[in-house]
Design brief:
It comes from Aegilops tauschii subsp. strangulata. Belongs to the thiamine pyrophosphokinase family. Catalyzes the phosphorylation of thiamine to thiamine pyrophosphate (TPP). TPP is an active cofactor for enzymes involved in glycolysis and energy production. Plant leaves require high levels of TPP for photosynthesis and carbohydrate metabolism. By secondary structure, this protein is α/β, with parallel strands linked by helices. It folds into two domains: about 150 residues, Thiamin pyrophosphokinase, catalytic domain (Rossmann fold, 3-Layer(aba) Sandwich), CATH 3.40.50.10240; about 80 residues, Sandwich (Jelly Rolls), CATH 2.60.120. Helix content is about 25%, strand content about 30%. The strands form two sheets. A ten-stranded mixed sheet has the order 5-4-3-2-6-7-8-15-10-13, sandwiched between helices. The N and C termini lie far apart (about 50 Å). Bound molecules: 2-acetamido-2-deoxy-beta-D-glucopyranose (NAG). 2-acetamido-2-deoxy-beta-D-glucopyranose (NAG) binds next to loops. The site of 2-acetamido-2-deoxy-beta-D-glucopyranose has 4 residues, from loops.
C-alpha cells in the first residue's frame, strides 16, 4: 500500500537498538543511608561519583555528596564546598561540616581555589592535582578524566557521574560543560542545577527515561546540540516526536511536558535531554 513507511526488507536489515534506561532516583530523599547492596541489588545499585564546579551549590548537594562513592572538586569548586556546605546545613557546627564534607580530590588549573582552602583540605588528606599545564581542556573535562582513571571501586560498570554547578553562570562555561557530555558519550554524566537535570542520549541506544514525579518534571526538552536529527521519535510526552526532524534554525523540542511514568526516545542523532527539577527537591 502507498502508506507503507518502511519496506519489510529494509525493516528486516535494521537491528533493534539496545535499550539504555535512565532514572533520577538518586534525587529521592531517604531517611536512612542505603544498606550495602547484595546480589541482584548490587547490580542495580545507585553508584555515582560527584563533581563540584565553581558555581553556587544546589540545595540537594549535601544529600548527593553523602551517598557518593567519590567526590571531586574542580578547582574553585572547593571554595564552594568550603563556604557552601555549612550554609546548606544551618544549625550545625561549620567546622564539623567541613571535616565531614571533605573532597577526595581537587583537580584543575588551581587558579580559582583559595590558598587557605587548598591548605585546609590538603591537611585533611585530600589529593591535590594541579593540571595547569593543560590549557586545552576544561576543569570538568579534567575531573571526568580523573574519575575514569581512578575509579572508586573494583566494579564500576554501573558508575555514573553527577556534576553540580555545571549550569548557570558564564555561557561559555555552560557550553563547555555540554561539550563534555558529547566528548565522553560512553560515560554516564548528569549535569545538575537547582532548576534542571541534563544528560546525553547517545544515538547508539533507544532510551527509556523513568520519571521520578516527586522530584522532577513536568517541563522537559530534547535538543540536537551536536548535529541535526533527521528522525527522532518519542512516547510519553505531551507533544511527541514521530519521525520528526530537529535542528537549530528549525524545530527543537523545548517546553515539552512529561505525561507518563516512562518516556522513550530514539533518534538518528545524539540528543540532549533536559527536565525541570521541583523546587522542594
Ligand atoms: C520518516 O520520514 C522520512 C522523511 O520524511 C521518510 O522518508 C521516511 O519514510 C519516514 N519513516 C518512517 C518510518 O515513517
Amino acid at each position: 500500500p502507498l502508506t507503507s513507511r518502511v519496506s519489510p526488507a529494509a525493516a528486516a536489515t535494521m537491528p533493534p537498538l539496545p535499550t539504555m534506561t535512565h532514572s533520577s532516583s538518586f534525587l529521592l530523599p531517604s531517611s536512612s543511608p542505603p544498606a550495602p547492596p547484595t546480589g541482584a541489588d548490587a547490580e542495580n545499585a545507585v553508584s555515582y561519583a560527584v563533581v563540584v564546579l565553581n558555581q553556587r551549590l544546589p540545595r540537594f548537594a549535601p544529600l548527593l555528596w553523602t551517598r557518593a562513592r567519590l567526590r571531586v572538586c574542580a578547582d574553585g569548586g572547593a571554595n564552594r564546598v568550603f563556604d557552601g556546605m555549612p550554609d546548606l546545613l544551618p544549625g550545625e557546627d561549620p567546622d564539623e561540616v567541613r571535616v565531614r564534607y571533605k573532597p577526595d580530590a581537587i583537580e584543575g588549573d588551581m587558579d580559582s581555589v583559595r590558598p587557605e582552602v587548598k591548605e585546609y583540605y590538603s591537611s585533611l588528606g585530600t589529593q591535590i592535582i594541579d593540571d595547569s599545564p593543560d590549557q586545552d581542556t576544561t576543569d570538568l573535562n579534567k575531573c571526568i578524566s580523573f574519575i575514569t582513571r581512578n575509579p572508586p571501586g573494583p566494579d564500576n560498570s554501573n558508575l555514573f557521574i553527577l556534576v553540580l554547578g555545571a549550569l548557570g553562570g558564564r555561557f561559555d562555561h555552560e557550553m563547555g560543560n555540554i561539550n563534555v557530555l558529547h566528548r565522553f558519550s560512553n560515560t554516564r554524566i548528569i549535569l545538575l542545577s537547582d532548576d534542571s537535570s541534563i544528560f546525553l542520549l547517545p544515538k547508539t541506544h533507544s532510551h527509556e527515561i523513568h520519571i521520578e514525579r516527586s522530584v522532577e518534571g513536568p517541563h522537559c526538552g530534547l535538543i540536537p546540540m551536536g548535529a541535526p536529527s533527521s528522525s527522532s521519535t518519542t512516547t510519553g510526552l505531551r507533544w511527541n516526536l514521530d519521525n520528526t526532524s530537529m535542528n537549530f534554525g528549525g524545530l527543537l523540542s523545548t517546553s515539552n511536558i512529561v505525561e507518563e511514568e516512562i518516556v522513550t526516545v530514539t533518534s538518528d542523532s545524539d540528543l540532549i535531554w533536559t527536565i525541570s527539577l521541583r523546587k522542594h527537591t
